[in-house]
Amino acid sequence: MADQQNKLIALDESLARIAQARQIALGGWSMSRKPCGMIRHIIAAGLRLPEVVILTAGVETDMLLAAGAVDRVRTFYFGLEAFGMGPGQRRGADMIEETESSLLFGLQAAAQGQPFHAVARHHCRALLTLRADLETITCPYGGDEYVALPPIAPDLAIIHAWRCDRRGNAEFGGTLAADRLLAAAARETIVTCEELVDDLAAIGGQADLIAPQTSAVVHLPNGAWPTGCEPRYRPDWKGLRDYAQLDPDAVPAWLDRHPLPTKG
Q1: What is the pTM of this model?
Q2: Where are the domains of the chain?
C-alpha cells in the first residue's frame, strides 16, 4: 500500500498538473526564492500559462514573457529592481494591475472563503481608474461606499523552499514573503525544494508551510537560480545583470547555456 503521507512526485507529474491550471500563483519576493527552476521546465515543456498571479514579478515572469509562455500577468510590481526592465517585459505584456493591498486582500478573501473584501472607496481611487471590472457597494449600516475586491483563488501555487520533507512540511529560509497566504488561497500547492529531508522536525527545522497546506513536493536543487535561496545561495547578480541586458530573441540561447535544474 502506498504511503499516503509521501507527497513527493516526479517533475513530469508536476508539469501535468500545471498544464491543467488556468491561474497560477508564484511565490517568493523580489530576488529571493522565486521558482525559476520550475518556470524554466514549464518553458522547456512548451506549456503556456493563461494567467500568473505574483506579488513582485521579476526574472521568473520575464522569462515566461520572453518565451511566449504566459498570456496575462496579475501583479502590483514588475521589474528587475536596479537592473530595470527585462527583455520579456520590454516586449510587452497583458497586465492586470493591482495594488499591494488589493492583491493581498483578494488572496485573503479566497483563503477565508469570502465573496469579496470591502475597502473604503477613497482608498481605491487610483485603482478604480485602471480597473473597470471592480464593483462598488453601499454599506447597509452607515451608507458609506466601498469597493468590493473579488477573491483571488489560484488553481495552483508554486512555492520554492530551502528544504522540505516528503510529507510537505517546508522551511523557506530567508524572507517568508506572502507564500503562506498564497498556499491558503490556492486550490493546490506544489513546493519545489533545494533539500529533501525525511522529517523536517527531526533535524530541528522550522516549518513555514505545514503538510496540510502542501499538495505535492518536487526535489529541485538550484531551483531558485538566478534569484537566491538563503541559506544555500545568494542571488546571482552578474547573471541577473546579463539577463536584463538581453534582447528578447536572445533569451532562449541564454537559457540553453545554463543547464536546467534537475532532481538531486
Answers
A1: 0.95
A2: 11-100+153-256, 115-149
